[in-house]
Amino acid sequence: MSYPAQPPQQPGGNPYAQNQPPQPGGNPYGQNQPPQGGPNQFPGGQFPPQQGQFGGGFPAPTPAPSRGNLGLGILAALVITLVAAGIYGAIMGAVEAEVGYAAVGVGFLIGFLAAKAGGASPAVIVVSAVLSLAAVYLGQILGLAIYISKSSPIGVMEILTQHFGDLSAGWKEELDFLSFVFLALGPIGAISGAKKAG
User: Which end of the chain is more exposed for a tag (fewer CB within 10 A), N or C?
Assistant: First the structure.
């Protein structure tokens, strides 16, 4: 039995390449590639932009989580105001003096957590500053009540609830320049904290 003669092998290529017609829409040079440095079919030597899988392009980036819930920010500021006022008052009552760093810390904490919860919008910053002023005031009132209770048979809660008018009048009598400085430190800390969180 005789076999048909095979075409001669071409080095490194397909032995049947000569017999295949050029494919439409394929390589304009047929089966033979242009020599190195030959003409490029794309202008400027650039290749067309690649598309993502299934020809849909690259996926759009996922949007950042939305922040800016004003109500949540104000609620967080209110809760932190009460907590911070209690801590500040306890510190003042324990050391029997006002502490500037504590007043700044109260404001910073209120502003930072309110902005984290509700976004660093101007409304949240203003509310935080006002509430930090209230927190420092309430802390000073609580500190004064603790101080009075140490030398009185009346407890702190009774002083705060039944003698709040007398307590507030005593606080006003004790006001001096340093008291106003401490009151101002709260809002300064709140603005700083809100900007740090945003």
Answer: N
Q: For the chain, give the percent of residues with pLDDT over 90.
A: 24
Please choose, from the candidates 106, 172, 185, 177, the residue with its C-alpha nearest in 3D space to the C-alpha of residue 144: 172
Q: Are 89 and 131 in contact (CB under 8 A)?
A: no
Q: Which residues contact 81 (CB under 8 A, 6 or more apart)?
A: 110, 131, 132, 134, 135, 138
pLDDT at residue 10 tops 60: no
Q: Which of 114, 148, 116, 144 is nearest to 132 (CA)?
A: 114
92 and 143 Cβ atoms separated by less than 8 Å: yes
pLDDT number for residue 134 = 93
| Nearest Cα to Cα of residue 118 among 76, 63, 64 | 76
Q: Does the predicted TM-score (pTM) go above 0.85?
A: no
